[in-house]
Amino acid sequence: MSAASVVIGANFGDEGKGLITDFEARRLNPRFVTRFNGGAQAGHTVTTSDGRRHVFGHVSSGTFAGSDTFLSSNFIFNPLALTRELSVLGKESDLKQHPYILVSDKARVTTIYDMLINGIIETLRGNDRHGSCGMGINETVTRHEFFPMSFGSLRFNSTFDIETQLEKIYREWVPKRLAQLGIDSVPKDFVSALYSTDLSKVAHDMKSAVELHASPGNWAASVKRGPLVFEGAQGLMLDEFMGEFPHVTRSITGLPAAIVAAAELNVKSLKPIYVTRAYLTRHGAGRLENEGIEFGAASTPDDKTNVENPWQGKIRYAPLEPNMLRSFIEADLERAKFVAQALGVTIEPPTLAVTCLDQIHSDVTVIDCYDNPRTCKVEVPKDDLPEFLVRRFDPKYEMSVSHVSRGPTAADVEYLRR
């Protein structure tokens, strides 16, 4: 088997991972695209040449290309969000058949209480919100350490057993967690859902999501046949261990998580593709150096996915910083070496995918120092930007440009490594 492609966001998310995953799925025609981190909070947009468009959260971005989805052990499974997404996907597309979804039994499960506590925390922060998506990712990880719930438990247990498990979380974990957070008064918008939820119905819906939409099958044997594409979520600058706390996600967003998923499938070789826009974006709170400095956009980017919302506000923009981009990617490659060695996985030379060049007028502005950004602005012809970025990397990494995007569809992607 040739090296599996691994699509990794190199910024704060929203780099174009959905686009590049869709392209790789069309190029390689894998039976499965593997989601190896994060959960339903992902927002990976795929637009097709015939006008279909969907923001993939739970299902892989290879779906329109005909690939099925595998959710690995580090993915956070949200049965209620999956059901909602599949309903929307069915209305937005003319898929010939229902997406086939395989799930690792070890995948952690988000409950309604994880999402509710997430929403309560953010609401009480008022104007100091962290910019969470409200999908309960951090709360799922935290709760799972004490009151675990996995995909396997949904699969093997009856609806009554699931209801009993939810009842235990409600009785024992919810008050403990609220006390830990210093919350003694729940906002009125959450009172009914938190204290009066029909757990019998929730358990039924969770079990139904598993029975109707997801399957364990013989996933290890099924997934590893033929070529594979691994799809990452969020970006390196939001990584749990590389980002700036507290504005991070509870996930390893880079190559080490993909290596773990590859080892589960007995995949021995991975080809990392690090994706960046021609500029920086960020949602919600957290530092964004040089925010507001013009970066050469022909106009305000038309971003139908990242519309203003109460959770994350407006998407924010700044020029790209080549040295910061390089430092995060090289740090990810360095930490991945140890995981790869331990698990017997080979890392092929990485490549860079640069998206959104169509949104730049002629020259793109980058910030080429860390001192005074307004005196360190460098104008780069937009078509030269990919190679300009690659030249910043230490030669030992053998970094090269693999993909350049000048539009929203796979047809707008130029593939440079043949």
Condensed summary:
The chain has 418 residues and is of the alpha/beta class. 34% of the residues lie in helices and 18% in strands. It has 2 domains: 4-104 and 216-278 and 318-358 and 382-415, Adenylosuccinate Synthetase, subunit A, domain 1 (Adenylosuccinate Synthetase, Chain A, domain 1, 3-Layer(aba) Sandwich); 108-212, Adenylosuccinate Synthetase, subunit A, domain 2, CATH 1.10.300.
Short descriptors:
single chain, 418 residues, alpha/beta, Adenylosuccinate Synthetase, Chain A, domain 1, Adenylosuccinate Synthetase, subunit A, domain 2, 2 domains, eleven-stranded mixed β-sheet, two-stranded antiparallel ribbon, 12 helices, 19 strands, 34% helix
Structure commentary:
The protein has 418 residues and is an alpha/beta fold. It folds into two domains: 4-104 and 216-278 and 318-358 and 382-415, 3-Layer(aba) Sandwich (Adenylosuccinate Synthetase, Chain A, domain 1), CATH 3.40.440.10; 108-212, Adenylosuccinate Synthetase, subunit A, domain 2 (Orthogonal Bundle). 34% of the residues lie in helices and 18% in strands. The chain contains twelve helices and 19 strands. It has helices at residues 17-28, 79-92, 112-125, 137-144, 151-156, 159-180, 188-196, 199-213, 219-223, 255-264, 322-343, 385-390, and strands at residues 4-9, 32-35, 44-47, 53-56, 68-71, 76-77, 101-103, 108-109, 214-215, 228-231, 269-277, 280-282, 316-318, 346-347, 351-355, 363-367, 377-381, 400-405, 413-415. Strand 3 (44-47) and strand 4 (53-56) form a beta hairpin. Helix 3 (112-125) crosses helix 4, helix 6 crosses helix 8 and helix 10 (255-264) runs parallel beside helix 11.
